[in-house]
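Dear Dr. V.,

Thank you for agreeing to look over these. As mentioned in my earlier message, I'm a first-year student in the group and I'm still getting used to reading structure tokens, so any feedback on how I've presented them would be very welcome. I ran two proteins. I've put each sequence directly above its structure. The first is here:
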Amino acid sequence: MNSLTKHLKKSIEIIENNKNNLHSDLWRLNFHLMPPIGWLNDPNGLCYFKGEYHIFFQYSPFNVNGELKFWGHYKSKDLINWEYLGVPLLPDQPFDCHGTYSGSALIEDEKMYLYYTGNVKYSGENYDYINNGRGSNTILAISDGNNIISKKCLLTNEDYPKNFTCHIRDPKVWKENDNYYMVLGGRTKEDKGVILLYKSLDKINWNFLNIIENKNKFGYMWECPDLFNLDNKTILMISPQGVEEQGYKYQNIYQSGYYILNGDYKTNNYSLNEFTEIDRGFDFYAPQTFLDNKNRRILIGWFGLPDIENFYTNKTIEKGWQHALTIPRVLKIISNKIYQQPIEELKSLRKEQLNIENNKIYNIDCCFELLIENILNDITIKLENDVIIQFKENLFTLKFDSDKLGCGRTSRSVEINNCNKLQIFVDYSSIEIFINDGEEVFSTRFYPNEKNIILEIDGNGNNTLYPLNSFSIK
């Protein structure tokens, strides 16, 4: 451990220990993982290792708006009881001195192999930091699950294809037979988002293999790539930037979604199905998946978005923290579409159920799961008479009637044939809506002024409400 590493660790410990009492904050979440203080963004290094789930996350403890990036670390045996392990991955080397950016975990030989992007920004008046002035290094950090044992720079800008900008990042690595593969998000000099595919025999030495791309340009940058098999389908999940809004599609500043990939992506004999958004809400980005010991493909996303300042905001900024991670979601394929279902473990948080009648007004604690089944036709759910969740005439909509709770958020919709079932998780300043067992999902932040909120349902389904206990975090 060099002196810079010691200094950074000590500084973070001091700021975390001296933070205000955030746990009394009205908007702190009960069953979502949050930053101890400051800023959180992408989930990183998701894995199941030696009987425990490990979740790393992009973390800026020194600035609530995000600056120098570290990796924070949580672990759990059951996805309900968590332990915060601090900040194991720091920008303490010349090849990552301006940020340990996003990446993934490969589990092998009783070790975690953590691949990430080391960000370096050079000083220069003529740099645009797109085509020049930035180092995007692919780094391998080896961990025993608690501490970083070693770090090594594997690839630099000089090793990537020449027709790319400096924007290459977010390695996702996996093993297939006796080979290792890695995808990186990239931006070409023609401002086209694509994926770079690499191959290795030893996890260290990587050879460029292929480009995975849409024939037609779809955004200028593809971030946070994830390539995996799901129910005998090959899925390429990405977070594209620069996609133009099309009706109800692509309404956020940046998107997150997937292609079903057909053919052999290791050669040019492949094709991509239509891009499908994975979450239709205001606050979702940079999802990552992993397999657990039950062979579940679990997705966790960033409960937020970058660069939203001109559109909407988060009131938690005034409290010294911003963003969270979504609840974990299990993925499956139905009719060539990914469905997302909340993990079963969340049921252990349920308190005694309450039966909620239609067309009555309830004042309830703002931490609950609402299950509405056997919906026959249109339905409208109101929270605080400001958040409107509605299905009407084959259109599902989440909207805010004012800025009071949404802080600039307006309306998001998706066309859907029917709405038979809703599962809604509300957690003090977050809402996650699962339609028809996860056929569509909406995630949003909102900011009520009290711990209790007004709930009203105008519909004809069977309503059950479960107040929820909180995660245990130590």
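The second protein is here, in the same arrangement:
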Amino acid sequence: MSLNGIDIASYQSKIQPSKLTTTDFVIVKFTQGTTYLNPYAKTQYSMSKKADKLLGGYHYGTGKDPVKEAQYFIASVGKRVGECILALDW
């Protein structure tokens, strides 16, 4: 069995997961580096969850300080850890 999915970032804020009938999962960009937080991440994530999609969250790594970037990402994902798959865009 294969799954179809997409990743979405802030520039794709108008995507409505409920209308993605052939999409099984959505991976939302949460963070980049140690200062950027996708302003639409919470909304994109909750809309995907309400649409009954499999969930993921990702961090766009800059490589400047991997430990601080990972800490920032995990803090930003918050209680969603364990509910979604975590990914790194390197």
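From my reading of the second output: The mean pLDDT is 97. The longest strand covers residues 25-32. Does that match how you would interpret it?

Kind regards,
E.
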